[in-house]
Amino acid sequence: MKGMMSYDLMETIRNTNEWMGASARAMASYPVWGLTPHPMFKLLSAWGRVTERSFARMVIKPDWGIRSIPGADGRDHTVEVETLLDKPFGSLVHFKVQGRAPMARRVLLVAPMSGHYATLLRSTVASLLPDCEVYVTDWHNARDIPVSEGKFDIEDYTLYLVDFMRFLGSDINVIAVCQPAPLTLAATAYLAEADPAAQPRTLTLIGGPIDPDAAATEVTDFGRRVTMGQLEQLVIQRVGFKYKGAGRMVYPGLMQLASFISMNMEKHADAFQKKIVAEAKGEGSERDHHNVFYDEYLSVMDMTAEFYLSTVERIFKGLEIAQNRFTIEGKRVDIGKITSVAVHTVEGGHDDISAPGQCVAALKLLTGLPEAKKAQHLEPGAGHYGIFAGSSWRKNIRPLILEFIDANAPEAPKGSRKPPVRAA
Fold first, then answer.
1. In this protein, which residues make up the domain named PHB de-polymerase C-terminal (predicted)?
2. How many whole angstroms from its chain centre is CA 306?
């Protein structure tokens, strides 16, 4: 019960801050204060608006917000998000472009399960849609999954990826963004031995911790300083009474958000200070850069305790992927079994979460893959988010990945492949 009370206490604090913001906004916005104009009222109202919005976003799942894309025929085509496979802990979704023939390039984006929703990849999806058939792993918030659905750790996560790849077929091009990179590599190796015909055509790993020891960051240092017992005691809680997953052990998204913010506290404080001043001056807008970024950044989801703890223990502390010792249900998954999947790694020169060296380490593990099927790219000046969103992605990384996919594609067959349909 103590864990549930702790979880509900966090939600109470969040709710109280949202209420305080709403109250301040309402009180400072009364017309009567116009009789005694003072900057304090405008600042208080602005603080209230920003505070209310910020704390409200923390429990809202963002919408994909991709309504349409321009087509080669000069028309705008509407986009429908359809669920192809729906599992308790995650779904496989497809961005269906209405009125457009299936594209030859078929891409599966493996979204991170690290505290944010898959919508973190919204701009990545939007940039790929004009040229690709896009599928995404849409992970579910652990607080909404009943305890009766059982556990979900990194082995289960890997097997989910195996199922998704099998469903999409061997002509899929997989792009794993950040956290899932090592487990996507393991899923590919699992298929290489268990079901070679279901392997993806290409695998692109973007800024993932394949070998956390290759380059130290604040994330890897934290993993070394804290024991598993301390970690479980400090951050694991039971979902409170408000949600369907009541009683489930989780690593709360609010706690992960606090960790994210603490890594760049001065930067975030400055951003909010400037936003409040802009709102007080009447210069703020609904879709300005601040709101667009923080509406997504502040929207967080819980992870199952077993997934979070097994990630820290086996990927970061145990280095099971880095040392090619990862097992599923007691059986070793040998990365050296990958012999035909072209693999490309992408790193950011200023990545402070998965520093350069961590992701490219995957290529050394691919002992059975010809060098001609390996590629790597280091994007100078790009931070962690810049390697899958922003100008570095748009101008340099996205074109390189599309070229890599095309370079490893067979000759175009007569007629396009029909995409898989939703499972019954």
1. 207-408
2. 18
pLDDT in tens, the chain (424 residues): 456 678 888 899 999 999 999 999 999 988 888 787 788 899 999 999 999 999 999 999 999 999 999 888 888 999 999 999 999 999 999 999 998 988 999 999 999 998 899 999 999 999 999 999 999 999 999 999 999 999 999 999 999 999 999 999 999 999 999 999 999 999 999 999 999 999 999 999 999 999 999 887 777 777 677 888 888 888 999 998 889 999 999 999 998 898 888 878 999 999 999 999 999 998 988 889 899 889 999 999 999 999 999 999 999 999 999 999 999 999 999 999 999 999 999 999 998 888 899 999 999 999 999 999 999 999 998 988 889 988 899 999 999 999 999 999 886 444 444 556 555 4
Q: Quick one: which of 58, 424, 1, 47 has its CA closest to 272?
A: 47
CB-CB contact of 41 with 33 (8 Å): yes
How far does CA 203 lie from the centroid of its chain?
Answer: 17
Is-contact 387 401, C-beta < 8 A?
no
Determine the 3-state secondary structure of 246 from DSSP.
Answer: coil
Buried b (16+ CB within 10 A) or exposed e, 136-160: bbbbbbbbebeeebeebbbbbbbeb
8 A C-beta contact, residue 308 and residue 249: no
> Which tokens in the block code for residue 167?
């469903």
Q: How far apart are CA 386 and CA 110, in angstroms?
A: 17
Q: What is the Cα–Cα distance from 69 to 128, expressed in whole angstroms?
A: 10
Strand partners, 85: 92
Catalogue the E-assigned strands of 71-172: 76-87, 90-97, 106-110, 133-139
Dihedral-angle region of residue 383 (phi above 0 means left; psi in -120 to 50 means alpha; beta otherwise): beta
116, 190, 200, 120: which is closest to 158 by C-alpha?
A: 190
pTM for this model (two decimals): 0.90
Q: How far is CA 33 from the centre of its chain?
A: 45
The domains located in the chain, with CATH, are: 4-58+253-298 (no CATH), 69-224+303-408 (3.40.50.1820)
